[in-house]
Each structure stands twice: as C-alpha cells, then as structure tokens.
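STRUCTURE:
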C-alpha cells in the first residue's frame, strides 16, 4: 500500500478523514473542529465537511415537507 511515511497518511487514511468530515458536516459540527493535523489529511476532512454542507443545501428542508403534507 502506498504510504508517505514523512507525512503520515495513505489513501485509506484520506478516505477515513473524508468520511469523518462528511459525517461531522452532516451533523452540523463546526469546520474548525477538525481532529487532524497535517495539510493533506485536513484537506480531506474539510472536503468531506464541505460536501456534506453542499448536499444539505441541495435537499429540501423537512419543514417544507411537512407544509406540503398539511
């Protein structure tokens, strides 16, 4: 498996950071609460966080759904 020993990350670590960032973003966690250190792994976490926010913005709100039912 490819791993950059100096930077301490590999593809699996980047995927994990992305998934954790996505989950944090979808739960409304602040972006500045990233638990990682190192530019590359932080960028992966933030990409997941940003993607979760974009998906949430594209989906209709639950309030809108209830107003359509009533």
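SEQUENCE:
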């Amino acid at each position: 498996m490819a791993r950059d020993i100096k930077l301490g990350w590999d593809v699996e670590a980047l995927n994990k950071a992305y998934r954790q960032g996505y989950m944090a973003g979808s739960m409304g966690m602040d972006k500045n609460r990233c638990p990682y250190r190192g530019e590359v792994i932080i960028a992966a976490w933030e990409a997941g966080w940003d993607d979760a926010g974009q998906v949430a913005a594209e989906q209709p709100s639950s309030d809108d759904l209830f107003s359509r039912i009533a």
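REMARK: The chain has one domain: 8-57.
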